[in-house]
Write a structure and sequence with these properties.
Helix content is 37%, strand content 15%. The protein has a 7-stranded mixed sheet with strand order 4-12-11-10-9-5-8, sandwiched between helices. It has a 4-stranded mixed sheet with strand order 1-2-3-15. A 3-stranded antiparallel sheet has the order 13-14-16, with helices on one face. It has helices spanning 4-16, 71-81, 92-104, 117-132, 172-175, 186-195, 221-232, 251-256, 282-285, 304-319, 322-345, 370-373, 378-390, 411-424; strands spanning 38-42, 45-48, 53-56, 110-114, 136-140, 153-154, 164-165, 178-181, 200-205, 235-239, 262-265, 276-280, 350-354, 357-361, 393-394, 403-404. It folds into 2 domains: 4-69 and 321-428, Aspartate Aminotransferase, domain 1, CATH 3.90.1150; 71-319, Aspartate Aminotransferase, domain 2 (3-Layer(aba) Sandwich). It is built from 14 helices and 16 strands. By secondary structure, the chain is of the alpha/beta class. Strand 10 (235-239), helix 8 (251-256) and strand 11 form a beta-alpha-beta unit. Bound molecules: pyridoxal-5'-phosphate (PLP).
Length: 429
């Protein structure tokens, strides 16, 4: 396939936008080459500026779970637009989507809408700190909770238990309040709790991780975190920005049966418009302004277009719950097909999957945390990514991202994907 116009547009974009993109992963730095520029999308396909049609396994990083330009979502937004696009005043629609989300998700009484997953996680942590009156938080290496300062932290050197900034601009002062544990390693959490007794406000985790590839929690890991939190008066925050309304109507909490104290959402909840949300028991949520002292606000929060898209999306998922099963089956079919091609060719690999999230890692050891994910062979990943792209299959341009299937994908699309892999699999040996 030819990507000439995309490359020209990228060159032009770089003159005016840092790196030519408004979010770094889009620049293809991890895989090389120029990003494609999208002209439009429909169902399972992206149509780029060169006239290529690509099968999309990213689904806008999750939101387009029903496929692109779903007619009901598109119509809802168009209709709403005619009544004005923002008021900064309450609307009934905000209550309707709140009620629906609370019906679908276990264990939450109240929900506040914001404009992104970043905002949701940042606000959830502030609420946890305000509620517990404690300062420190525990996060897991490789989990992503948006780009706010408290989360841009890497492991500290030597024996330090607190993290260090992993971006210039994040202060040491902020970094010292974020403690880093290792995914699927309960001892790493326990030792942080021991060393910082009485100081930890919350543990925040992707209950199924999707930002170091797809990584599942080991059996009992989430349950053990839940017990530790109860024992030490720490709030458990599930970042379900990726998994919420995707792995089940009620997200990981429903699918794996463990409840958090605060849950964050983004991606699917906005139906493709900029929306995030955080939710919890009334006891905790009532600490937010204007009822309580913890400040949080937003000019465009609860925006009518965003709420119309999100409400239509959630309603569609709630009323057609077979979508989740259908997505699971399609993803299992992809998993089986890719595994067979790779196994037959003798390519060393790992495939992790749950529901409609899946990722491939070119390494020998099981991928269970950031360290094992980082052992993947990136040269092979690049070959894999470009081999797919050349055949019209658009996979995430980084080995540290999960794929997000959408229900518009057909079995023919998946067969094409598997066949594409078989055409160049020998290069992956
Ligand atoms: C995408 C993502 C975020 C950040 O959401 P944005 O809308 O990009 O700000 C936070 N947490 C997780 C788990 C995510 O996948």
């Amino acid at each position: 396939m030819i990507y000439k116009r995309s490359s020209a547009l990228f060159d032009e974009a770089k003159k005016y936008i840092p790196g030519g993109v408004n979010s770094p992963v889009r620049a293809f730095n991890a895989v090389g080459g120029d990003p494609i520029f999208v002209k439009k999308a429909a169902g399972a396909y992206l149509h780029d500026e060169d006239g290529n049609q690509l099968i999309d396994y990213i689904s806008s990083w999750g939101p387009m779970i029903l496929g692109h330009a779903h007619p009901k979502v598109v119509d809802a937004v168009i209709e709403k637009t005619k009544d004005g696009t923002s008021y900064g005043i309450p609307t009934e629609l905000e209550t309707k989507i709140a009620k629906l989300a609370i019906d679908m998700v276990p264990g939450i009484d109240k929900i506040r809408f914001v404009n992104s997953g970043t905002e949701a996680c940042m606000s959830a942590v502030r609420l946890a700190r305000g509620y517990t009156r404690k300062d420190k938080i525990i996060k897991f290496a490789g989990c992503y909770h948006g780009h706010s300062d408290s989360f841009l932290i890497q492991a500290g050197s030597g024996g330090a238990t607190f993290g260090e900034p992993n971006s210039p601009g994040v202060t040491k002062g902020t970094a010292k309040d974020t403690l880093l544990a290792h995914y699927n390693n309960l001892d790493s959490v326990k030792s942080l709790i021991q060393k910082h007794k009485g100081e930890i406000a919350c543990i925040i985790i992707e209950p199924v991780a999707g930002n170091m590839g797809c990584i599942l929690p080991n059996d009992g890991f989430l349950e053990d975190l839940r017990s530790l939190c109860d024992e030490h008066n720490i709030l458990l925050v599930f970042d379900e920005v990726m998994t919420g309304f995707r792995l089940a109507p009620g997200g990981v909490q429903e699918r794996l049966g463990v409840l958090a104290d605060i849950v964050t959402f983004g991606k699917v909840v906005g139906g493709g418009l900029p929306v995030g949300a955080f939710a919890g028991k009334a006891e905790i949520m009532n600490h937010l302004a204007p009822d309580g002292p913890v400040y949080q606000a937003g000019t465009l929060s609860g925006n009518p277009l965003a709420m119309a898209a999100g409400y239509t999306m959630l309603k569609e998922l709630n009323e057609n719950r077979s979508i989740f099963e259908s997505l699971d089956k399609k993803t299992a079919y992809l998993h089986k097909g890719m595994k067979k091609v790779l196994d037959d060719a003798g390519v060393v690999h790992q495939i992790n999957r749950i529901g409609s999230m899946i990722s491939i890692h070119f390494c020998e050891e099981p991928v269970v945390d950031f360290k094992t994910a980082a052992k993947g062979n990136n040269d092979k990943f690049k070959t894999y990514f470009h081999g797919m792209l050349d055949r019209g299959v658009y996979m995430p341009p980084s080995a540290f991202e999960s794929y997000f299937l959408n229900d518009a994908l057909s079995y023919e699309d998946i067969d094409h994907t598997i066949k594409s892999l078989s055409e160049f699999v020998d290069k992956l040996k």
